[in-house]
Specification:
The complex is a heterodimer of chains A (about 325) and B (about 400). With about 325 residues, chain A is mainly alpha-helical. Helices cover about 65% and strands about 5% of the residues of chain A. Chain A is flat. With about 400 residues, chain B is α+β, with helices and mostly antiparallel strands. Chain B has two domains: about 220 residues, Rossmann fold; about 160 residues, no CATH class. In chain B, helix 3 packs across helix 4 and helix 4 crosses helix 5. The chains are: A mainly alpha (about 325), B alpha+beta (about 400).
Chain lengths: ~325, ~400
């Protein structure tokens, strides 16, 4: 009897040890979450404090006896700083939306063709396209800028005649220049990602559709697009984030030519002012900037859930 | 409706392998023809050539007097049921079934009418608004059928439509498809590797081996008059027992030395079915005996008995019992047998048995007459029902 209860007690100890051990990964995850979230939280708290408070006391003292203020937000959204963040956000949309939608639309067509259409040299063209991933954007900035402003001209030898290989589009200082660059550089990755997904769709349903009388375009619109929503949404989120948060391309392409076309990132950077005089405003600016990507993420994240394909083939 | 005619059709893949050799046969108007063969025999390739999913290298393929070699699947006006069902996962059952009509710009009312009609026929009425993933395997299979029915095409093509179902459902759907085809009277070409499906469903069965057509006949003909060793070994479950034996003639009777000490006399009526057996006297032939053509030794004359064989396994199936019996007969080990068995392990087993100078026969008995495990028995052979083939070529000695 007593032996039995001892064994039982031993089991109890074993179980509680196991419980402690098995909670370690969850605990570690929570720790990481907190460590990563804390600076953001601090930034958020500081965005409601004046310049003096921000510099004199740490943000966690916010809750003690300080008055909260929306002054920082009012200032950055007002027009007296760098043309105003409102215009910057509008410019950011003018860049990020076409820079997201256009490459996805084109890459989806291309990915379908690479995956399911037979044509000569398909494999090599695909490899060539994807290998463009290796081209660093930074090296292309100046050549692209020259191309946008002045075009590409070539003087033919002997004939002494100059022809225009690429027309002068005069794009410098426009948001078009920025999203065009984003779109172009997004293409290899977009095609690669979408191709991987689309080529994994079951062959049978394409053959079935062909027998049902569908041509490539109908297959693409009625089958491939609806079935590819998860990957389209995933890529859209990434591409939107990258282009929304881009600073370098916007600064280069728009640069000093048209300050009123600058996206939010460039404006926020400029808000700090000389010698960081208005540094305290960066907190509010950062949260205005982060607001929209968060909305996009929550709007599209449900499409991340896979399983749309379940039930198509086999049991 | 229309007939489907293969006229010397060949299929060579770009890498040079040939899947189909000079395939010629026809599926008559309204007929249900089963294309059967072991894996890799080219049956699916043949079907896909009819569908237009696979190019035809040479020869002519006609559907209803129209040469379709270069027509797209769309222009051929056929419907296909896939092994995987290939339902469109994001569409409801109704949309799945109406997809082809929608593409053909049929009016919405007409689509609804035809989808409802087909759903009624298949018992899918309540499921029309569900997505495929909310259906069971059998229901998905029915939707795939419905998709074909709705179109009322020239012909149905079915590519192993039952192989993803569990055994019980398979038997049920087997009957349903056969009945449906019978009712709708649509030319149907049905591919399967399952010879039970082949035997039970079709009007006629075409047997393929490694791209060559072996025999086209009704299921009964195929079972009772196989043209060669391969068909004999492939059709029938359990398979026909095949062995090699010398043929002698004595006092006008044809004798087979089936195994040491067991010489059986061939019934004279068998000589009418296999007249060329006489030419083989003094040589060796391949003998085929169906499992049901073994009986108790007492039921046949003394000169038709296989003696002293040992029962190694008895499978009591209720209505019948299958006895696995070790004999000392000479196994037929040839490529025909390898193809017919369609199972490398089983073939290796046969080779091993042959090396030891024997092989296992399967015999079918009524449950009350079945021998017991481990018994050494004498069994009678109904020699008026046995089959003869050339050992080398595998051809029936007719």
């Amino acid at each position: 009897m007593s032996a039995l209860s001892v064994r039982k007690g031993g089991d109890g100890v074993g179980r509680s040890v196991y419980r402690v051990i098995s909670s370690i990964p969850t605990g570690a995850l929570w720790l990481i979450v907190i460590v990563w979230a804390l600076p953001t939280l601090g930034l958020f708290a500081n965005s409601f404090r004046g310049a003096g408070e921000q510099r004199s006391a740490p943000w966690w003292l916010l809750f003690r006896d300080e008055a909260l203020t929306l002054d920082n937000y009012a200032t950055v959204l007002g027009t007296d700083v760098q043309g105003g963040l409102v215009q910057g956000v509008i410019n950011s949309f003018a860049i990020a939306l076409p820079a997201t939608v256009i490459p996805i639309a084109m890459a989806a067509f291309a990915a379908y063709a690479f995956a399911w259409m037979d044509f000569r040299g398909r494999e090599w063209i695909f490899i060539g396209t994807v290998s463009l991933l290796a081209v660093p954007l930074q090296t292309a900035l100046i050549p692209l800028l020259q191309l946008y402003n002045g075009g590409a001209n070539q003087t033919l030898p002997f004939l002494e005649k100059t022809i225009s290989v690429f027309p002068d589009l005069g794009l410098t200082g426009t948001t078009t220049a920025v999203w065009l660059t984003h779109a172009g550089f997004a293409m290899p990755l977009a095609i690669f990602l979408l191709h991987n997904f689309i080529s994994g769709l079951p062959r049978d349903i394409f053959e079935s559709a062909r027998i049902d009388g569908a041509d490539h375009f109908q297959i693409f619109v009625r089958l491939v697009l609806p079935l590819s929503i998860p990957v389209l949404a995933a890529f859209a989120i990434f591409q939107f984030l990258w282009t929304w948060n881009d600073y370098l391309i916007a600064l280069t392409m728009i640069g000093p030519f048209a300050p009123d076309k600058m996206p939010a990132t460039v404006i926020i950077a400029a808000i700090a002012g000389d010698f960081g005089r208005y540094e305290h405003l960066l907190t509010a600016g950062a949260f205005v900037q982060a607001f929209f990507p968060i909305i996009v993420f929550f709007a599209l994240q449900r499409y991340f859930v896979r399983g749309i394909l379940a039930g198509s083939v086999k049991g | 409706m229309a007939d489907i005619v293969f006229d010397k059709v060949n299929k060579v893949y770009p890498d040079g392998t040939q899947a189909i050799f000079d395939l010629s046969f026809e599926v008559a108007d309204d007929e249900f023809v089963i294309l059967v063969g072991p894996s890799g025999c080219g049956k699916s390739t043949a079907l896909r050539m009819v569908a237009g999913l696979e190019e035809i290298t040479s020869g002519e393929l006609r559907i209803g007097d129209r040469v379709v070699n270069d027509l797209s699947p769309k222009e051929r006006d056929i419907a296909m049921v896939f092994q995987s069902y290939a339902l469109y996962p994001h569409m409801s059952v109704a949309d799945n079934m109406g997809f082809a009509l929608k593409l053909a710009k049929v009016s919405k009312e007409e689509i609804d009418r035809r989808v409802n009609e087909a759903a009624e026929m298949l018992g899918l009425k309540e499921y029309l608004h569900r997505k495929p993933k909310a259906l069971s395997g059998g229901q998905r299979q029915r939707v795939a059928m419905g998709r074909a029915i709705v179109r009322s095409p020239q012909a149905y093509l079915m590519d192993e439509p039952l192989s993803n179902l569990d055994a019980k459902l398979r038997v049920q759907m087997r009957g349903e498809i056969a009945a449906l085809q019978n009712r709708l009277k649509v030319t149907t070409l049905y591919v399967t590797h399952d010879q039970v499906e082949a035997m039970t469903m079709g009007d006629r069965v075409a047997v393929l081996k490694l791209g060559w057509l072996q025999q086209v006949a009704s299921p009964t003909d195929l079972y009772e008059r196989p043209d060669n060793l391969f068909v004999a070994g492939f059709i029938g479950s359990p398979a026909m027992n095949l062995s090699e034996a010398p043929v002698r003639e004595e006092d006008g009777r044809i004798l087979l030395d089936l195994q040491e000490g067991s010489t059986i006399t061939v019934d004279p009526s068998t000589l009418e079915r296999y007249p060329r057996l006489k030419d083989r006297v003094g040589g060796r032939v391949a003998v085929g005996i169906r499992p049901e053509h073994f009986v108790h030794a007492s039921e046949v004359p003394d000169d038709r008995v296989l003696r002293g064989v040992e029962v190694t396994l008895v499978e009591a199936l209720g209505a019948e019992s299958l006895a696995h019996v070790d004999t000392r007969t000479t196994a037929v080990v040839s490529d025909d047998m390898r193809a017919a068995m369609d199972d490398e392990d089983a073939f290796e087993d046969l080779k091993r048995q042959a090396a030891q100078g024997g092989q296992s026969f399967i015999m079918r008995f009524a449950p009350d007459r079945a021998p017991r495990l481990g018994e050494r028995i004498d069994v009678g052979v109904l020699t008026d029902k046995i089959h003869f083939f050339d050992v080398e070529t595998g051809r029936a000695l007719r």
